[in-house]
Design a protein that fits this description.
mainly beta, 11-stranded antiparallel sheet, two-stranded antiparallel sheet
């Protein structure tokens, strides 16, 4: 069964593949696509230093890893080609980053494709026993992702 994917810069029809995109920084990650991702907190935008994502087109799942000024994290989530949405959970590895900010917590990220801006936009939020906050989040594929047959 073929699946039609609509991402900001391309339309492709695929069968059994995994889409892999990475934000290149110091050779981190795999794949050829570049991702820019940022979130708004404390009155300013924060860029993620390193980010690699893979899209499983059979399960409609997203997996990834990276780091930012809070710490090292993994990402797991789902996406829909029908609604053009990404729902992700970013989980920080405790004691791997800023000791004041990194609680080993989860961040929920909900994004919808914005055709005009050619990116995914939405919100992130954190809810722990000590903290609750939500704000804006963005993810953009700067170049088309490479396809890897499995």
């Amino acid at each position: 069964m073929a699946i039609r994917l609509l991402f900001p810069f391309f339309i492709i029809t695929i069968t059994t593949v995994i889409l892999v995109a990475s934000q290149r920084a110091g050779g981190y990650g795999s794949g050829g696509g570049n991702i820019s991702s940022r979130y708004h907190q404390y009155g300013k935008w924060h860029n993620q230093n390193r980010l690699a994502l893979s899209f499983d087109t059979q399960k409609f799942e997203v997996r990834g890893k990276g780091n930012d000024d809070v710490g090292v994290f993994t990402i797991f989530g789902v996406y829909s080609t029908k609604t053009q949405r990404l729902n992700l959970i970013k989980t920080y590895q405790h004691d791997r980053g800023d000791p004041k900010e990194n609680l080993g917590h989860e961040v929920v990220i909900q994004l919808t494709r914005n055709l005009r801006n050619r990116q995914f936009e939405g919100i992130w939020y954190v809810r722990t026993n000590q903290y609750y906050q939500e704000n804006k989040s963005e993810l953009k594929f700067e170049t088309p992702v490479q396809l890897f047959m499995i």
